[in-house]
């Protein structure tokens, strides 16, 4: 993260932003690109000459509920967009989480930050990632050029889909100014079926069985018994055992029928309970926002693996580090909290554990000192890393936008192979 003494510049519009980037390019001055700042603690630390915030670029510029499309400026608070959608019973189906408590920030997340980091919550297993819902982006590249890509309809994309490239680039390729997003109807009803007391491997088997069923599961997670007490949902916190949960959403009669079928399916594993709308919503917000680890110290890892490998990986990491952890995405996502960031914050153990299955481990929360010496993002094979550098060079040849946020150099990276 940049020095807190550096002034933050907040351009009033995209023209002023374009001028700022152009001036920085001409003078070879590096820029930290940020929105409101809720996610500044994500990624490698940076040393920059100036901080540019798009927090003044706000407002919903287009919303056509009947066309399921919304456009907003990058600095628009996510809460403003979600409120507008809720008035028409619509939603961002990728269920963007709010990691403010996890990262120690009270700043409201913006749509630009969500798209820039490609964040998706528990519904990702059904609806896809944030990048799957971005239809168009207006941006200023590191060349100081204003570019528009995509459009207001899905079929408007031809050639390279730059929207997907920009989504998840953490501001290293361009500064997004306006974003067009596909929205979808919200479910009329929501139910979550819970079964208590399963071990990790058995929980993954149960979730996989549910996800392979015709019951259209929109979320599946596992909390071990030592974490359920941190939930604000009384049944979960009072379970005194692990909780395996699956969610169904949609029209009322369909939800009730699917919920009944899932209760029968899970009945073979133990006692089954059911959460209705408000408790269900609260539970899945806790899962997506990583609330079980919000009040703990660093570090926290986000590990993506094949669900079939999650139980064995978790056991290996726990045995070596004393970690706490839980599963989202049916076991495809493991959230790991380690009791200490000594040495490499567990990077060697975690990345060795996932090596055989081709997983990805990202260090989400750690001190600035730790993030200055550990590869925060999963190190890539040489060919992929070379391609990433060529893409970076194409958009930002002088390397002025968020320099080093996503990659340590080989010289700096102590955990490189």
Structural class: alpha+beta
What do the pLDDT scores average to?
92
Classified by CATH, the class of the largest domain is Alpha Beta
Gyration radius, to the nearest Å? 22 Å
Number of domains: 3
In CATH terms, what is the architecture of the largest domain?
2-Layer Sandwich
- Beta fraction: 15-25%
Low-confidence runs? 410-417
- Care to count the β-strands? 18
N/C terminus separation: 25 Å
Task: List the total number of helices.
Answer: 15
In the sheet with the most strands, the strands line up as 4-5-9-7-8
Shape: globular
How much helical structure, as a percent, in the residues?
25-40%
Q: What about the largest sheet? A: 5 strands, antiparallel
- CATH topology heading of the largest domain: Uridine Diphospho-n-acetylenolpyruvylglucosamine Reductase, domain 3
Structural summary, described in words:
By secondary structure, the protein is an alpha+beta fold. The chain has three domains: 1-186 and 379-417, Uridine Diphospho-n-acetylenolpyruvylglucosamine Reductase, domain 3, CATH 3.30.465; 189-288, Alpha-Beta Plaits; 296-371, Alpha-Beta Plaits (2-Layer Sandwich), CATH 3.30.70.240. It has helices spanning 14-27, 78-86, 100-103, 111-116, 124-127, 162-166, 200-211, 225-228, 234-237, 252-266, 277-288, 307-321, 347-354, 368-371, 382-395; strands spanning 8-9, 31-34, 50-53, 60-64, 69-73, 90-91, 134-141, 146-150, 174-182, 184-185, 189-196, 219-223, 243-250, 272-275, 300-304, 324-328, 333-337, 360-365. The strands form five sheets. Strands 4-5-9-7-8 form a five-stranded antiparallel sheet. The protein has a four-stranded antiparallel sheet with strand order 12-13-11-14. A four-stranded antiparallel sheet has the order 16-17-15-18, covered by helices on one side. Strand 16 (324-328) and strand 17 form a beta hairpin. The longest helix is centred in the middle third of the chain and has 15 residues, at 252-266. The radius of gyration is 22 Å and the shape is globular. The two termini are 25 Å apart.
């Amino acid at each position: 993260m940049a020095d807190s003494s550096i002034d933050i510049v907040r351009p009033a519009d995209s023209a002023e932003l374009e001028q700022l980037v152009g001036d920085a390019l001409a003078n070879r001055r590096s820029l930290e690109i940020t929105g409101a700042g809720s996610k500044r603690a994500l990624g490698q630390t940076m040393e920059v000459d100036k901080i540019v915030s798009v927090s003044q670029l706000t407002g919903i510029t287009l919303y056509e509920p009947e066309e399921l499309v919304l456009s907003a400026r990058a600095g628009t608070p996510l809460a403003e967009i979600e409120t507008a959608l809720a008035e028409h019973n619509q939603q961002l189906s990728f269920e963007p989480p709010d990691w403010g408590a996890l990262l120690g920030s009270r700043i409201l997340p913006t749509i630009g930050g969500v798209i820039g980091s490609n964040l998706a919550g528990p519904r990702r297993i059904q609806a896809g990632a944030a990048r799957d819902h971005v239809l168009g982006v207006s941006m200023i590249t590191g060349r100081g050029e204003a570019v528009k890509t995509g459009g207001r309809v899905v079929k408007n994309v031809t050639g390279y889909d730059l929207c997907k490239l920009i989504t998840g680039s953490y501001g290293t390729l361009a500064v997004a100014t306006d974003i067009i997003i596909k929205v979808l109807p919200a479910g009329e009803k929501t139910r979550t079926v819970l079964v208590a007391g399963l071990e990790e491997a058995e929980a993954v088997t149960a979730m996989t069985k549910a996800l392979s069923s015709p019951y259209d599961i929109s979320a599946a997670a596992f909390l071990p018994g030592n974490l359920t007490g941190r939930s604000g949902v009384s049944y979960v916190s009072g379970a005194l055992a692990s909780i395996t949960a699956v969610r169904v959403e949609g029209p009322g009669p369909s939800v009730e029928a699917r919920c009944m079928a899932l209760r029968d399916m899970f009945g073979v594993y133990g006692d089954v309970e059911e959460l209705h709308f408000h408790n269900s919503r609260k539970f899945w917000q806790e899962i997506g926002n990583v609330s079980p680890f919000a009040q703990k110290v660093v570090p926290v890892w986000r590990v993506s693996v094949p669900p079939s490998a999650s139980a064995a990986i978790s056991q290996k990491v726990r045995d070596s580090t004393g970690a706490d952890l839980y599963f989202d995405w049916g076991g495809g996502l493991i959230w790991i909290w380690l009791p200490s960031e000594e040495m490499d914050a567990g990077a060697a153990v975690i990345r060795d554990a996932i090596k055989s299955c081709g997983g990805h481990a990202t260090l989400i929360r750690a001190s600035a000192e730790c993030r200055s010496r550990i590869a925060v993002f999963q190190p890539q094979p040489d060919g992929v890393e070379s391609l990433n550098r060529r893409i970076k060079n194409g958009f930002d040849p002088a390397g002025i936008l968020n320099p080093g946020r996503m990659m340590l150099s080989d010289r700096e990276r102590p955990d490189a192979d």
